[in-house]
Amino acid sequence: MTNTTDQMLLKYLNVYGAYQPAVIPNQHAFTFLSKETGIPQVWKWNGKTFDIEPYTDLADRVLSVSHSPSGKKTMIGMDHNGNEKQQLYLLTNDGSTVEELVVSPEHFHEFGGWSPDETKITIASNRRDPGFFDIYVLDLKTKKMEEVYKHDGKCTPICWTKDEENILISVSETNIDNIVYVLHVESKELYRLGSKTISARHHSLELTNDGKGGFLSSDVGRDTMGVFKFSFDAPWNLQEMFGSTNWDIEEIALSPNEDMLAYTVNEGGFSSLMIYNLEKHSHYKVETLPTGVYQSPSWIKDGEIVIGVKSAVLPGDIWKFNLEEEKAERMTYVGESKDVEGLWMEPELHSFSSFDGLEVPYFYYGKQKQSCPVVVYVHGGPEHQIRAEYNPVIQFFAAQGFAVVAPNVRGSMGYGRKYVKLDDVRKRMDAVADLKWLVEDLVNTRGVDREKVGIMGRSYGGFMVLAALTHYPNIWAAGVDIVGISHFKTFLENTGPWRRALREYEYGSLKLDTDFFEEIAPLNHTNTITAPLLIFHGRNDTRVPVSEAIQLTDDLKNQNKPVELVIFEDEGHQTEKIENHIHMNRKIVEFMETFL
Predict the structure, then answer these.
(1) Staple 337 to which of 15, 198, 328, 555, CB 3.0 to 4.6 Å?
(2) 197 within some domain
(3) What secondary structure does DSSP assign to 253-316, as a single string?
(4) Which of 129-133, 512-516, 571-575 shows the lowest per-residue confidence on average (mean pLDDT)?
């Protein structure tokens, strides 16, 4: 890369957004997360446009923020070097005082909410056993921590009920489905919300102030997520209120006076913000926000919502919408980059017909021209979804004359239960075949040069890269695998025990499916790889162990095949530190430029 190109890439990579807004009660203010200082930290908006200030300056990345009901205390979750083992810290005096509250570095902790009187919190942790998460209640005055629910699997507290007598908890049932229970803290009695016979996803949940029930998003009895109402008097009866035939309702937020319900809809990778009037039973669509992906809607007061907004050309900022004035206003400008933002491109949304006639959607970045090099960018998950969000490497490739194609192959979220389950267990390679058919479609409909197609992906997307290179070797000119899986058997044996049980619903089990794992494992088919391969991994990865990358690299080197492995000693499953982010993406761009 030339110095000029290198400097331009750095400008793309040094763009930071604002995300995860959290309203501070009783202050007409909110916090948000940003990587502006190099790693995610908390910032505060103080009531006026541009008026933001640092709220934390901690040693490692902040993963979660929760303000107490009074707004006087804040709970921060922070891990170490990307290991995702979240520890909890109590902030008071507007963030200036930091107290270590729940710290056991070898264990995971997930915050589950403040008691309404702020004397207690609830958390989940795997202190009893690496594979089991239990629910605890911590008394903030005495610092005594009591186990209130024992579970041999993965569970997370959601919130306290208004009377402080119960905790709602989410228990993972499969890789996508969960059960919501109501746990009485004193008696330890437990009962379930919704059907005992139908598996479902239950997500965003809001309680009413009268303590009698609330609302949640769920796909019980549906293909997509809708909004349901529930009461604690008849917890088995989830009453469907409304939903979309084609799209998921993702997040809901109940207004302070409880007359409005804001909700976001995922429409093929773009978001809509809707307002439902609970008295009039009417829906209002917000039209004044920028097109993009919306996150974390919350009411700063009646009639005003704050929400995170991201798009391919907006790295992330916080916006406010006034319902009475029907006016949207940008509250932060963290995602601005006057040097390069004029070069960013909006993607086109297309689809192709795969081998079995399934329509598979994809985003296309770049200017339409014959024979341009193409990078296929595969998302992770596998149940995630590539959405219309800013990605510096995608944007840089597109500006350099590449086309970047980001598909949501079968198994992706956002298109209903049927679609997300199309790659389960022994249907795994059907999703890899989608990638082959995508390239064929690009060649036939866009004049793509089949000798100039590369592929890259992270996590499960890394497996997809390796599977594509080994099972369809003639299609690819280069591959980049970031924290990917090279063999499902070794992955399941070495990943976190709590994750193994859930991943087996998706990938297959060590007991029943090892023959299939051996059949499809990229590690067993390295002899077929013809494309050069670049691999990245974090030493502290607790999801996909670094051994997945090492065993693959060693095997390829023994065959004298072109492969390079970069291990970040201070990273986990994500790449968070800016110097590593820059190093990794500079090498990716150089690699693709060389081989495409």
Answers:
(1) 15
(2) no
(3) EE-TTSSEEEEEEEETTEEEEEEEETTTTEEEE--SSPSSEEEEEEEEETTEEEEEEEETTEEE
(4) 571-575
Radius of gyration of the chain (CA): 24
Instruction: Give domain status of residue 439, yes or no.
Output: yes
CA distance 559 to 579: 32
Burial of 560 (0-12, 13-18, 19+ CB in 10 A): exposed
Instruction: Please indicate, yes or no, if residue 458 is contained in any of the structural domains.
Output: yes
Per the CB < 8 A criterion, the answer to whether 283 and 299 are in contact is no
The answer to whether the beta carbons of residues 97 and 91 sit under 8 Å apart is yes
β-bridge partners, 136: 123, 147
DSSP summary character for residue 410: T
H/E segment holding residue 494: helix 488-494
Q: Give the count of domains, the chain.
A: 1
* Pairing status of strand 478-482 against strand 533-538: parallel
User: What does the alpha-carbon distance between residue 71 and residue 48 come to, in Å, rounded to a whole number?
Assistant: 18
CB 152 within 8 A of CB 482: no
Q: What is the pLDDT of residue 504?
A: 86
pLDDT tens readout for residues 296-327 = 999 999 999 999 999 999 999 999 999 999 99
pTM: 0.92
Phi, psi of 514 (to 5 degrees): -65, -30
Reported as half-sphere exposure (CB side, CA atoms, 13 A), residue 449 has a value of 11
Domain that holds residue 370: 341-595
Residue 235 contacts residue 194 (beta carbons within 8 Å): yes
Query: Domain for residue 575, yes or no?
Result: yes
Burial string for 237-272 (b: 16+ CB within 10 Å, else e) reads: ebeeeebbeebbbbbbbbbeeeebbbbbbbebbbbb
| Sequence-ordered list of residues with C-beta below 8 angstroms from that of 106, at least 6 positions apart, any chain | 85
Q: Which amino acid is at 456?
A: M
Tokens of 391: 């990605």
- Facing residues of 162 across strands? none
Q: Are strands 29-34 and 41-45 parallel, antiparallel or unpaired?
A: antiparallel
Q: Is pLDDT above 70 for 1?
A: no
d(CA 431, CA 423): 6
Taking each helix axis as running N to C, give the angle between helix 3-13 and helix 392-399, from 0 to 180 degrees, rounded to the nearest 10: 140
Give the CATH number for residue 521: 3.40.50.1820
Q: Is 356 exposed, middle or buried (0-12, 13-18, 19+ CB in 10 A)?
A: exposed
Q: Are 79 and 86 in contact (CB under 8 A)?
A: yes
